[in-house]
């Protein structure tokens, strides 16, 4: 029996896929990593037991395992490897909600949006909201410690993880944490897996902390004729109140969105902010008024406030639409750098300088309230020289962020695309500590080799 | 040069203390662990460099190091060991606040209350509020992932840790994370140290996330003639709103507090709830009205609501005073078990059964909103048989909690007192994973041996 036949025999029919056309579609995530190989198989288990069988087999034969959620990752965390397998969690889709403990137990293959929808039926809310929430999986969110728009107030994925079931490299299944809001028994190992990008284990079950349904928000939109003015307003706001959203779009993004949506955005603005407060009752409106006034004080050319959720949502949708809209101009290298908030304007102007130097269009959108920006580097893949300039810019933007005390990745993960820059941010001691943990949990190095570490 | 002289020579004068009277005062934390030894020295470094020197020395000579904050721990996490040293961080007291990034960088020796006070000068707030906040250190809070009263809404210590500087067993200093609200570069190792009870490294600097100043709260106090009624009301509340406090006291605690404070508490009540909402404007009062109504629906014999912060604070102070008040009745074994919220009433009745079986007074107070209870086992240390019964009860309470899907420790840590029960909660796979991480970071086992793991 060949190595692969052994795997096929260990799992229910149809779990192991070797059809070349299907394999092709699992080679890349959205990062379209050019180094992608072709896996020997795609494995789609339906249970923790099956994941254990896969990893026992992979350990025994030293086969590289690339865990994959819905393949929406932007850093090449799920790039397939020649001779390895892709372990897709897409078929693991159970969820149960306990409204009394305000927790949900979800399998990793559910979409973020499906988790939100299911818990909403109980009047509950799962806050983290990556822009890709309608197409990304909750398992992938765990792998990258995904963020989103509401994180400025509500925190990131790890803040909602109470417990995990994880299958380790050798096939051992471990339960960490559980539906207890406070639990300090043993090391906080559940947190260690949130953001580990599939390098330490495969998450097969997630116990999520939920909140009561979100209140409807008051929304404020403001346009500025300089990026600095907008960035200064952000800092003035976050020092005083806790907005539930504080999003930034630059001129390129505004125009790209307006090209598509024709909603009357100001094409001459250098920057647009979309801010919201979901504090209840008059407090939300007070926050909105405070933000509008702060925007004005900082030179906003126009502000618009609304307490109508649909009207507000239209602007949020415009912000969410920025990436596909800019993508209409060419292929994108999508950056994810973050800085301490006071450095936001410097980061944006640094990006503009890089764009000018390399004769590139780089649009900046940002979760401004937490200093996390997404410079969108536009290039034509048919123009090899341009693509090379885009790659250079991609690296230089990370260098600028690190130089400002920032991070090479705020919420997308290191994956394979950003790995060469990781040591520059972490330094040798923290890199060594990362390697020690990896070595302790995956001594054979079969889990997502080449990603993150 | 003796081993100890080598340490003395490596550090500034006065850093290493060997005076027997002083050593005596560092043998125990508040758990008064009877197994405590006498350390060869107490070392009180003032900087990361000095901590590195201590750990290099300890590694070279395989000397056990017991890290210690202010010695207020309740699980024996800082019990001294014969022939080891106690590394006290009490002299490391620097703090700087950046109101723009809404972060503080604190050394571990500051009291929690000092951190709160310093950041309040900038209009900011550090939420976690263990009842011991006036005497416990922020470093100790990191070690145990401390909780408190406001955690039901605002989360626990780990939710506020953005970055750490940690000295590892071999003396390497590592920076993890930093003043960035989102950062997923590398494994989330800063979180691994929060709650690691000094077993993986010594934290020398902490970057804390802060919030804008808390709004003043509306407070609701309610008395019940059964514990079940109070527990049911808790679940009805947390499913609907996010109170900023939801505290429980049983009849023994009510009477003990009333004995001391004479504030007119209902001595006939079986349970008292102290609840609050700090939502802004009318929302806080709405929440308070909702909680009062819910208490009444669930059979409260009396409810009292106030939006006067001083009046509210008097009841919070009464709740905080419960432990010293009950302590007036005898020595205490202070438990810290937690359960998923629906099991709260079962846990409390289980404790009552254990008290009856062992002819003991056990008072239960609880951070009810997150299912975290503190059964206070009263005993007379001069009565050996009673002390033994108290010890039995201490273990049985943990067994009941684990049997209800709960935890042996919600916020105090495992330390040495609860270590025999840890495997029963975690199971063999998670225990093995804990040991693997410990082995990877502290292969010689010099850091807090015998604690937690």
From TrEMBL, chains A, B:
Q: Which cofactor does it need?
A: FAD
List residues of the FAD-binding PCMH-type domain.
35-213
Q: Which SUPFAM superfamilies match?
A: FAD-binding/transporter-associated domain-like, FAD-linked oxidases, C-terminal domain
GO-annotated molecular function: FAD binding; oxidoreductase activity
Transferase as a keyword of this entry, yes or no, is no
Q: Which keywords has UniProt assigned to this entry?
A: FAD, Flavoprotein, Oxidoreductase
InterPro entries assigned to the protein according to its UniProt record, in alphabetical order? FAD-bd_oxidored_4_C (IPR004113), FAD-bd_PCMH (IPR016166), FAD-bd_PCMH-like_sf (IPR036318), FAD-bd_PCMH_sub2 (IPR016169), FAD-linked_Oxase-like_C (IPR016164), FAD-linked_OxidoTrans_Type4 (IPR051914), Oxid_FAD_bind_N (IPR006094), Vanillyl_alc_oxidase_C-sub2 (IPR016171)
**What PANTHER family does the database record attribute to this sequence?**
GLYCOLATE OXIDASE SUBUNIT GLCD (PTHR42934)
Its family remark reads: Belongs to the FAD-binding oxidoreductase/transferase type 4 family.
This protein's name: FAD-linked oxidase
Q: Which organism is it from?
A: Mycolicibacterium poriferae
